[in-house]
Write a structure and sequence with these properties.
Blueprint: E1 3-5, H1 6-13, H2 17-26, E2 37-39, H3 40-51, H4 58-63, H5 69-74, H6 90-111, E3 116-120, H7 125-132, H8 136-145, H9 158-167, E4 171-175, H10 180-192, E5 197-199, E6 203-208, H11 214-225, E7 240-245, E8 248-253, H12 258-266, E9 274-280, H13 287-298, E10 303-308, H14 317-326, E11 339-342, H15 351-365, E12 368-370, E13 376-385, E14 389-398, E15 401-402, E16 406-409, E17 412-421, E18 426-427, E19 429-430, E20 434-441, E21 450-453, H16 457-476, H17 487-492, E22 497-504, H18 507-518, E23 526-534, H19 539-548, E24 551-555, H20 561-570, E25 574-577, H21 580-591, E26 599-615, E27 619-632, E28 636-641, E29 644-656, E30 659-660, E31 663-665, E32 669-674, E33 685-693
Parallel strand pairs: 3-4, 6-8, 6-9, 9-10, 10-11, 22-23, 22-24, 24-25
Antiparallel strand pairs: 1-2, 5-12, 7-8, 13-14, 13-21, 14-20, 15-19, 16-17, 16-21, 17-18, 17-20, 26-27, 26-33, 27-31, 27-32, 28-29, 28-33, 29-30, 29-32
Helix pairs in contact: 12-19, 18-21, 19-20
């Protein structure tokens, strides 16, 4: 059986090869380009289908490539005009007259220019049927002939519309529906002429270790500096509030901590201008302090250090300065560029100086906003209120929002029905750097969603619809995060920063790993260690990796259960090692495009040791409860104590009561004995896993 190339069939059909490739793919014919081949009988069936069995003369086929598809498909073999025999009967004369009349009408019809049908944006089968006055079933049948199974609400592609137009002998013009970027450009063009930039208040987030007085400091500022409420009014908690010093405003975001700070940044929201890092003078730098610093640095936000609790007898601010200098925050008086302020939230000391320093940093940053355009900004919090419906706390970052404005929050459309400020007062307008509650949205948006006010409701609906489509696509196709496997291909695309987060069992290991990784040299790649810490990999680590598109490198530790689930959801690459050399080699290989993982670890389940039994001739039996997944007799077992791996090995026996079993599922108790390892304690976590060979795709 012979073979036919795509370009040869395209020539026979009078179509360009690109369009034919699209049709062939719709018909499930496996072709890649114009040089791809297909069986001769397949080519004949395609030819018959698209020409309805009308074989073109050889000269028509040869010249078809120089003609439009429409012209070729409309051509038909022309029959010669046969002169009417004068010796025919009356019936033949009548039929001859009728034929000539029909021919004349057809000729006139060909001369008359056809109307062009304009199709805009999303066109479904039902809409097309209505526009061309054809039954829906007829269009569905024609699509079926092309191998396309469809329904009345199915959106037709541009190629499908062109093929149907050829089938129905109609001229169409397809006007693409503008995408989200084009719609936003239209809005920005409208706003461009209205540009009145003025200084705006700074937006501040307070970060720090859990017991170092973040909340106390915020409360102290609120009590002494929050703008006065009306008589009898109650300050409204809306996740943000405005303070005032020297007749200038400062906006504080009342977030739970750096996890929320980073979660918003992971969604693309950059709302903070300044981060205030609270460190207790009597306690010093703690692990969460380091995390907060790295989160703020990753966001590119200037840091002001507030050394709190200076009223304590054992307070030592100088020690705190030295500890922070060791991690890169060098005080101004030591020749650095970080502002340090001594405060006491309890005695309300140093608050004015702290606010003045915030205003100073804001002044240096020259924060400005447009006071004449429609507002845009970020959703800080959102909830469903029983009495008021969906309520969103938004931070206006640019422009002005008014009651009655059409608004888009993410992919949700609405109209501002009412606005309430941080003092619980209803307002009609909100200006840049103003936190405000907005009522009137159709649904509850997510924290971190961007919002946009537009003057045209139709435009607002279009943008919301486009974002909804993007969201649905994102659900089906997750955002591609960086991983060691694909890093080399990204280098070729000029993506040359490799962000790493290091977590290890002890500080010495973390330092050694960092030093070794930073010594890896490559002209195109710059390795950045955006966070380094001790202990198990936490949800906070995963969120930072997600926001910074980083890879987590763990040495002799394990991720927490929730962190592992979050990493799967956010598609964050976690690499775990027990030998530093292996970690270095993997990173080197990734940079040089040599990494080819052969095995992949699959976690089967986790069990917690609830009771220890010492049995002669057997050893230590771990009375355990399966927390997650299952424990399999043939699995490799890992012993984790306080987030650190202390042993890996095989299971010697797995029992339910007195019976040997192959596996134990979630929620059941079991007895586990490990090969050659008896140093087990209550509360240890036993993690069952297996190594799966990764097959090449």
């Amino acid at each position: 059986m012979g073979k036919v190339r795509v370009y040869e069939l395209a020539k026979d059909l009078g179509m360009n090869s690109k369009k034919l490739i699209t049709v062939l793919r719709e018909l499930n014919v496996d072709v890649k380009n114009h040089m791809s081949t297909m069986d001769e009988d397949v080519a004949k069936r395609i030819l018959d289908m698209l020409t309805k069995g009308e074989k073109k003369p050889l000269d028509v086929q040869t010249d078809a490539a120089d003609k439009s598809t429409e012209a070729v498909l409309e051509e038909a073999p022309v029959k010669k005009k046969v002169p009417v025999n004068k010796q025919v009967n009356k019936k033949n004369v009548k039929e001859g007259r009728k034929a000539r009349k029909t021919a004349k009408l057809n000729q006139e019809k060909q001369i008359t220019p056809e109307e062009v049908l304009l199709l805009e944006g999303r066109v479904t089968v039902g809409e097309l049927a209505g526009r061309i006055n054809k039954p829906v079933s007829d269009i569905l049948q024609k699509l079926l002939e092309l191998g396309i199974i469809s329904n009345i609400n199915q959106q037709l592609t541009e190629d499908q519309l062109e093929i149907l137009a050829e089938m129905y002998k109609i001229n169409i013009k397809i006007k693409a529906d503008p995408d989200e970027e084009e719609l936003l450009n239209i809005i920005e063009e409208d706003e461009h002429d209205n540009k009145v930039l003025k200084a705006r208040p700074p937006v501040v987030t307070v970060l720090g270790h859990v017991d170092h007085g973040k909340t106390s400091l915020l409360d102290a500022i609120k009590e002494t500096n929050v703008l006065a409420t009306e008589a009898g009014g109650i300050t409204q908690h809306i996740g943000a509030y405005t303070a005032e010093i020297n007749q200038k405003k400062v906006v504080f975001l009342d977030t739970p901590g750096h996890e929320a700070f980073t979660a918003m940044r992971a969604r693309g929201a950059q709302v903070t201008d300044i981060a205030v890092l609270v460190v207790a003078a009597d306690d010093g730098v703690m692990p969460q302090t380091i995390e907060a610093i790295n989160h703020a640095k990753a966001a590119g936000v200037p840091i002001i250090v507030a050394i709190n609790k200076i009223d304590r007898p054992n307070a030592n601010p100088e020690r705190v300065k030295k500890q922070l200098a060791d991690v890169g925050l060098i005080p101004e008086e030591w020749g650095g560029d970080t502002i340090f302020v001594n405060v006491s939230a309890l005695k309300k000391e140093g608050l004015d100086e702290l606010l003045e320093m915030i205003l100073l940093v804001a002044e240096m940053a020259e924060l400005k906003a447009n006071y004449s355009r429609h507002a845009k900004g970020t959703v800080i919090e959102a909830k469903l209120d029983k009495g008021r419906g969906p309520v969103a706390t938004v931070l206006v970052q640019d422009g002005v929002i008014e009651v009655g404005d059409p608004i888009i929050c993410g992919n949700i459309y609405g109209k501002v029905r009412a606005m309430i400020d941080d003092k619980g007062k209803r307002i009609k307008k909100a200006y840049p750097a103003t936190p405000v509650e907005v009522l009137g949205l159709a649904e509850v948006p997510q924290a971190g969603d961007s919002f946009l006010v537009v003057k045209d409701e139709k435009l607002a609906r279009q943008i919301a619809a486009k974002r909804g489509e993007k969201l649905r696509e994102a659900t089906l196709r997750k955002v591609q995060r960086v991983s060691l496997e694909d890093f080399f291909s990204r280098i070729e695309d000029q993506e040359i920063d490799l962000n790493l987060i290091i977590k290890a069992d002890v500080q010495g290991s973390a330092e050694a790993l960092q030093e070794s990784l930073l010594k890896i040299e490559n002209e195109q790649v710059k390795i950045k260690i955006i966070h380094k810490g001790v202990g198990a990999i936490t949800e906070s680590d995963v969120m930072l990796a997600s926001a910074s598109n980083a890879i987590i490198v763990g040495f002799n530790i394990r991720p927490e259960a929730n962190a592992r689930k979050l990493a799967e959801k956010e598609q964050v690459d976690i690499r775990l090692y027990r030998v530093i050399y292996e970690a270095i080699e993997d990173v080197k290989a990734a940079i040089n495009g040599l990494l080819e993982p052969e095995y992949e670890e699959r976690i089967l389940g986790q069990a917690e040791i609830r009771q220890i039994f010492k049995v002669s001739r057997i050893g230590t039996v771990a009375g355990s409860y399966v927390l997650d997944g299952k424990i399999s007799r043939n699995a490799t077992m890992r012993v984790i104590r306080d987030g650190t791996v202390i042993h890996e090995g095989k299971i010697e026996s797995l029992k339910r009561f007195k019976d040997d079993v192959k596996e134990v599922n979630t929620g059941f108790e079991c007895g586990i004995v490990l090969e050659n390892f008896n140093d087990l304690k209550e509360k240890d976590i036993l993690e069952a896993f297996e190594m799966m060979k990764v097959t090449a795709t």
